[in-house]
């Protein structure tokens, strides 16, 4: 029985509206007993928040199935030396870092960690740049530059810090294979027995390809059929939407 890693936006939901058939797909996977991770690069919501978001759209999934770039970032940092972090982000990210034993501080931090927040300001940029220039390790939850409606996302918030310091962050989220390995560790799964379902060739499918997973592209989101030939790698399967998937 295969492990399933499934993206949210563009696969299960558009904004907060159900993509028709995705509820039946997820409920079938749960009934079959496939280990399931619903994986998102978005670091602002907790597992409970995401459970409520999907539940409101008619997809009922246990809270334990959700895995975010904030959770993966905390997992990554557990494997590094240092316990002090200057954080630009929301409560879900700081919650995961506290749980991993980190102190959130602006006094000699070991790490500068950037997630997503609407309260981004000049003071945050100044402090983050000063700490990174002074040797703090620069970590970001995800490389996405924008969210729905061209709202600024993590990659955009990192850009000024990169320009000031000349240093790029390590991005934990997709397409990094780190988040895939972290999600698999979360369910004690292995890459050779795992399928990833996503709507974006350059994040979901690339991450799956780099981590050695079987890949399923759905064309209900970002990437369309014409986009497949633009990349040097290919998904193993292509479906119009999650409700059409018949290979798991």
TrEMBL record:
Gene Ontology MF: a single term: hydrolase activity
Organism expressing this protein natively: Shewanella subflava
Pfam families: Hydrolase_6, Hydrolase_like
Domain of life where this protein originates: Bacteria
Keywords per UniProt: Hydrolase
InterPro entries: HAD-like_sf, HAD-SF_hydro_IIA, HAD_sf
The protein's name in its UniProt record: HAD-IIA family hydrolase
